[in-house]
Amino acid sequence: RLRLSFEEGLVDDKLSKSWTLVPESAKTIADLSYFILNSFGLQEKCECGLILSLEGFVLPPTQSLNLVLPTDIISVQRKEVTRKRKRDSDEEETLKITSKKRKTAEKEKEKKEKRQKDKK
Q1: 54-72, pLDDT tens digit by residue?
Q2: Shortest CA distance to 45 belongs to which of 14, 21, 10?
Q3: Among candidates 76, 2, 85, which has minimal Cα distance to 37?
Q4: pTM of this prediction exceeds 0.85
Q5: What phi, psi does 48 have (nearest 5°)?
Q6: Is 66 in a helix, a strand, or coil?
Q7: pLDDT for 84-94, tens place per residue?
Q8: Whole-number Å distance between alpha carbons of 2 and 68
Q9: Do residues 78 and 53 lie in contact, with contact meaning Cβ atoms separated by under 8 Å?
Q10: Where are the alpha helices (DSSP H) in the chain?
Q11: Cα distance between residue 53 and residue 6, in whole Å
């Protein structure tokens, strides 16, 4: 069993500090994170997943669950979208804008050429 302390607003106030029984099938921190997501119905609130930490130190998802002792209190926080993803979407938006400008410029060029042909 483990003690969990959820970030404010993540779960009902009555559950913000909870005990939980960890299934025997959970072998890694990632397994524990998945179990918490499902047990507390956090899939929609935490689409990017969870960050689990112990005494202010992040528990890496690939580490063994043996890293955690029954006396430990695990902090549970929502994982936020990283800046890299935001930059990627900004770059995509820039590409879309550039593509639109290029198409508009090409259309203008075609219109200009057509007008010149019509004048001749």
Answers
A1: 999 999 999 999 999 989 9
A2: 10
A3: 76
A4: no
A5: -90, 0
A6: helix
A7: 555 555 555 55
A8: 9
A9: no
A10: 29-39, 83-119
A11: 11
**Ordered strands of the 57-58 beta sheet:** 17-20, 2-6, 73-78, 50-54, 57-58
- Name the amino acid, one letter, at 6: F
d(CA 100, CA 94): 10
In percent, how much of the chain has pLDDT > 70? 78
Paired with 3 in beta bridges are 19, 73
The rounded distance, in Å, linking the Cα atoms of 52 and 7 is 11
- The b-or-e profile of 13-51 (16+ CB within 10 A means b, else e) is eeeeebebebeeebebbbbbbebbbeebebeeebeebbb
Q: And the tokens for 87? A: 């930059």
Q: Which two tokens stand for residue 118?
A: 């019509």
Q: What is the pLDDT of residues 5-28, one digit of tens each?
A: 999 988 888 999 999 999 999 999
